[in-house]
Amino acid sequence: MSDIRVLSESDKQASANFKRIFQQLKQSTGIVQKDIAAKMEVTIMAISHFMNGDRAMTNDFIYRLSEVLNVSPLEIKPDFDLVTFSINEELQRLDKHQKSLVLQYIQTIK
């Protein structure tokens, strides 16, 4: 069974934005897909799939891509939830007990 899913309109817009930003940078800096792939530690084919809207980009990928392209994640995907992403990133750094305490606290303030 395939893990490929139908892209949402948001995913399609993110791919179009990635392609537009890339083309602008290519003109101004000479960057090519191979450069982005190397910095992202993915294949050129993966970059091509994401840019052409063949596959959806994960939030982690969008965040890392934004750092490589030196843009905000919101420029790639306008509905990118930076707050939730940042919280999840910080939670990954905690040990199991610390994470449990933070999640319990979050439940109490909801």
Report on this model:
The chain is elongated and about 50 Å long. 15% of the residues are buried. It folds into two domains: 7-79, 434 Repressor (Amino-terminal Domain), CATH 1.10.260.40; 81-110. Helix content is 70%, strand content 0%. It has helices at residues 9-29, 33-40, 44-51, 59-69, 73-76, 82-92, 96-109. It is built from seven helices and no strands. By secondary structure, the chain is mainly alpha-helical.
Features of the shown structure:
single chain; 110 residues; mainly alpha; 434 Repressor (Amino-terminal Domain); 2 domains; 0% strand; elongated
What are the SSEs and their pairings?
Elements (H helix, E strand, L loop, with lengths): L8 H21 L3 H8 L3 H8 L7 H11 L3 H4 L5 H11 L3 H14 L1
- Taken together, the total number of domains comes to 2
Distance between the termini: 38 Å
Instruction: Give the DSSP E fraction (strand runs of 2 or more residues).
Output: under 5%
| Structural class computed from helices and strand pairing | mainly alpha
Note the total helix count.
Answer: 7
User: In CATH terms, what is the architecture of the largest domain?
Assistant: Orthogonal Bundle
Q: What CATH first level of the largest domain would be assigned? A: Mainly Alpha
CATH superfamily label of the largest domain: lambda repressor-like DNA-binding domains
Poorly predicted runs are: none
Helix and strand sequence = HHHHHHH
Overall 3D shape: elongated
- Rounded mean pLDDT is 88
